[in-house]
Specification:
Length: 94
């Protein structure tokens, strides 16, 4: 199984972690590491997240963070696509 970050998800991740880093760089690193750990779990359990609000997507609530990872699982291609990394207070879908 492979993980692909779509450009919008990369932008989301960078913006979220940069925002945290402005106030507490250590917390931003810790949140980033925790996010990566949760994504590694997806490699073994790709249906771990709940069905998404947008058809064909899934949403993983990242424990101990305010983040929700929106992703798509392609079983035939053995591929996970990270679509968005949202703060729980953001409206999704727009």
């Amino acid at each position: 199984m492979r993980i692909f970050w779509l450009p919008r998800a990369v932008q989301d991740r960078q913006a979220q972690l940069d925002y945290i880093a402005q106030r507490n760089p250590h917390a931003a690193l810790k949140q980033g590491d925790h996010l990566e750990g949760q994504i590694q779990l997806l490699l073994q359990h790709p249906l771990m997240g709940r069905p998404g609000r947008v058809p064909g997507t899934r949403e993983l609530v990242i424990s101990k963070t305010p983040f929700v990872l929106v992703y798509r699982y392609h079983e035939a291609r053995q591929r996970l696509e990270m679509l968005r990394l949202l703060h729980g207070s953001q409206q999704w879908p727009p």
